[in-house]
Write a structure and sequence with these properties.
With 324 residues, the chain is of the alpha/beta class. Helix content is 48%, strand content 7%. It contains 15 helices and 5 strands. It has a 5-stranded mixed beta sheet with strand order 2-1-3-5-4, sandwiched between helices. Strand 1, helix 5 and strand 2 form a beta-alpha-beta unit. Helix 2 runs parallel beside helix 4 and helix 13 packs across helix 14. The radius of gyration is 23 Å and the shape is elongated.
Amino acid sequence: MKYTTVVVDDKQHCLEMMRRMEEEFKKENEAFFVKVIQEEPSLVLRVHAVTILADLGGEAAIPALTDVLLHDPDPLVRQRIVLGVTSNVTRDERGRHALVHALLDPDRDVRLTIVPPPHTVAHLSGGVIDGYCVGEPWNQQSEALGIGRIALTGPDIWKGMPEKVLGTTESWAANNPQTLKALIKALIEACLWLDEPANRAEAARILSSPRYLNMPAEVMSRTLDLPDFHVFQRNAANFPWRSHADWFLAQMVRWKQAPADTDIKAVADRVYRTDIYRAAARDMGVECPDVDRLPPGGHGEPLLPAGDDKSSTAATAGVVRGSN
């Protein structure tokens, strides 16, 4: 698409179009605003159309906004998206994959900023960020309040993706082996309980209390009640697959978050202690995989692009600003 840099080519036309935009915004007519962006020569009209289209945030908006970000010569139109991410490698790398899939460069076209998970909803509501990538229940909370729309969930793209981690320093693990084993056993026991559908309502009640997440249990239950959305222990969900570590480390090298000469296998083997996990699980009679790694693609993960061309499949979960 070729864009112009005319500020106002026809004042009367612009005023009429602005009134029309108000009407079409009430109708949530995304196609109208896409047409304005693609066909109107006025810079003023395109700025307004981009802002409104981003606020509507439907699927029809994505190709048009992507093209604007990539090709519109004027910075007033080519607004940078601010995507809030939590201080979590998993979500940062998934978020980057999603942006690459949309033909965006995460380091050029988007500003990634760290937001504590409990603050993501307030930041979105206040316009501090345009979207965020975070685990539940914060996505559901934005949607329940009518200030955000879930654009994509993790399982939509990478079913069975890894999430939270129980990690300690290497020295602490060496000095406290029995305590570490007890922690792993407690985690496994809790996750076995959570995997039972009959226990989900009680889990929502506990987690919704002011002591923990301080939000309505109904919001918590929105995803806890979905079959296979949250998998806590089944399918070796807690097993520290070293092939998961390989993938994340490769992503970190790719985005220059880790040195290019990082020995990925050696680091993964040192950090992902399958031997410690197996010992704890064995004491509980819980089965574990016999191997430490699956081949590339074995977890359903997005495969790294050949030659680092930044064009791999997306995998993320997040919310964008806008009403349902």
